[in-house]
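for the writeup, i need someone to sanity check this before i put it in the appendix. the sequnce is what the collaborator sent (i think, or maybe the updated version? ugh). structure was predicted straight from it, no edits. if anything looks off just tell me and ill rerun, i have time this weekend
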Amino acid sequence: MKAKTSFFKLNSVNHSVLTGWAGPDNGPNCTKLHFFAGDILVGAAGADLFDAGAKKAGYRDGWCGFEFEIRDSHFVLSDAISIRCGVSGAELHTLSISDVNAGPRKNRVGKSVEDLVSYAIDVRYDDLSYYEPLITRLSRALAPRKYVDFAYRFVLERRPDEGGLDAYVRYAKTEPMLVVAMLKDSDEYKSKRNAGLPGVFSADFPGCPLFE
């Protein structure tokens, strides 16, 4: 059983790993932290590790530390991550993508837990409204041709033909959902073996162009 968070401290962002400590006023139960991109839960961590800094500061004999690996995919839906108490939902800290990019980064070795889960649970969607927040965000952030390139890789799982770009580029800024809808309505998409489009955190989702 987890307890309501009463204290929180973010120590550092080192090599894309967040470290810090958090805990309740009293009692044996540890705190759970939730990481949100907008209104979407993208990660969680328990504050049950030993942290020397917390012990020195007099918090729970040091047994209230946490670690959480920040990945590019966490910022697909928003430029900031909200760290919240897993019990009360109260916001404890906001971390921007610039905070993470300012520090050193390292490539992960092997598969993370998120990678393994994404391979095991490949949820696909047919309703385009599920993707509207992401599509709107990308269309505003990307140049028209780069947005169309992403739309092709997302829907048809390939790069666009140069000859077919212009038909979609003109809609990239004004009607970005229409670009995806037209590609989804194509004979090529309908002949795909896998029905539906991959979820944002699926292993089949194309690399987000915001980080390329």
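The chain has a mean pLDDT of 82. The first strand starts at residue 7 and ends at 14.
thx in advance!!
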